[in-house]
Specification:
The complex is a heterodimer of chains A (134) and B (228). Chain A has 134 residues and is mainly α. Chain A contains five helices and three strands; from the N terminus they run ααβααββα. Chain B folds into two domains: 80 residues; 139 residues, no CATH class. Chain B is 76% helix and 4% strand. The chains are: A mainly alpha (134), B mainly alpha (228).
């Protein structure tokens, strides 16, 4: 019960609720946005590279293709810009980098995330115990 | 990079896909491209990104389903939703270009055919007579019909993507034939049914041929300038 409340609160905090998507995918998308922003912040990257990095960090449950709608949205909101340029291995690729607005959004995300991460972990860990005894 | 360059690159790279992945990707390509009011540049950029992603995944032995999921239509809808709309200016010039081409084709073929029939075979008159008022109304209706025809065809192509069962080609042919016949039929019917009103004028038929050629050249120049 308490887990659900926190998850719902998290989603309200992080995303515009009320879209057509389910709560679960809303939640995931907002977190993915934050992850993509922070990966690009370290080094400009292109689509495939980004999805590989997300997988390397353990987000293997996320389908690779799901980054493209997110990249489009981040561009539309002017948080990132894409630039076609030749890659080291040859073909031209679209490399993304953060804009100033993107930096601010990333800071905001990091701030919200650190506030929510600890409590959510605690609740999920103790969830089983509180169900019975509390 | 311009949208046309990206399209060429896409055409070239697409040939490297396996048969299975190509079918999956081309359905996505059609579905995503057939959204008239979306930015062409952004559309082509994301399509190329998806293609390159798929090519790399293919080298690692993955299928398109593993990359983009089992429901490509839902996925494409998500992508399309996030593509920004085309700038008003570009939309307007695309519509203008289509209108010029349409007028150019009809005025040109009517002008050339009419003139040739008269001078070589002595059929009909060298003059074309029409009423300004009803002429303009018919022209307006024809252009609206043209718009409806293009939208109908786009919609028809779009519904044919992602279909699980193969539709027989003669059925497809019949469907397109029906849409086209309705379009041409309506144009002809309106031409005959509309009562004439407004001042009547006569111009030499070959003027129409010249006008048609001018329209066509204009639309061609616009196309080169806009890179459509």
């Amino acid at each position: 019960m308490l887990n659900k409340v926190v998850i719902i609160l998290t989603s309200i905090l992080l995303y515009k609720v009320g879209g057509k998507l389910s709560l679960r995918s809303q939640l995931l998308k907002g977190i993915l946005e934050g992850c993509i922003l922070s990966i690009i912040n370290i080094q400009p990257a292109y689509g495939y590279e980004l999805s590989v990095k997300l997988q390397q960090f353990g987000l293997s449950d996320v389908s690779e293709g799901s980054i493209y709608p997110i990249l489009l949205r981040l561009q539309k909101e002017k948080l990132i810009i894409g630039e076609m340029r030749a890659s080291e291995s040859g073909p031209k690729r679209k490399y993304y980098k953060l804009t100033e607005k993107g930096q601010e959004a990333l800071q905001l995300f990091t701030h919200h995330w650190t506030l929510i991460k600890g409590p959510v972990d605690n609740i999920i860990e103790q969830g089983g115990k509180t169900d019975g005894s509390n | 990079m311009e949208a046309t360059e990206i399209i060429e690159l896409n055409n070239e790279k697409r040939t490297r896909l396996t048969e299975h992945n190509l079918k999956y990707y081309e359905d996505m390509l059609l579905y995503i491209r057939l959204n008239g009011n979306k930015s062409e540049q952004q559309t082509e950029e994301v399509l190329l990104e998806m293609l390159e992603h798929l090519l790399q995944a293919q080298e690692e032995g993955k299928t398109a389903e593993e990359v983009f999921g089992d429901d490509p239509k839902a996925y494409c809808k998500e992508v399309v939703e996030e593509i920004p709309t085309e700038k008003r200016k570009n939309q307007a010039s695309l519509i203008m270009m289509v209108i010029l081409q349409f007028l150019g084709f009809f005025a040109g073929s009517y002008g050339i055919l009419g003139t040739a029939l008269h001078y070589f075979f002595d059929i009909g008159s060298a003059l074309t007579t029409f009423s300004i008022g009803s002429g303009l109304v018919i022209l307006g209706i024809d252009l609206l019909l043209l718009g409806a025809f293009i939208l109908a065809i786009l919609k028809w192509i779009k519904q044919s993507t992602f279909s699980k069962k193969e539709i027989k080609s003669w059925v497809e042919f019949l469907q397109v034939w029906a849409i086209s016949t309705a379009f041409i039929g309506l144009i002809v019917v309106i031409h005959f049914v509309m009562p004439s009103f407004g001042k009547e004028v006569s111009i030499p038929t070959y003027y129409l041929a010249i006008l048609g050629v001018i329209f066509y050249v204009l639309s061609f120049l616009m196309r080169r300038k806009q890179n459509f």
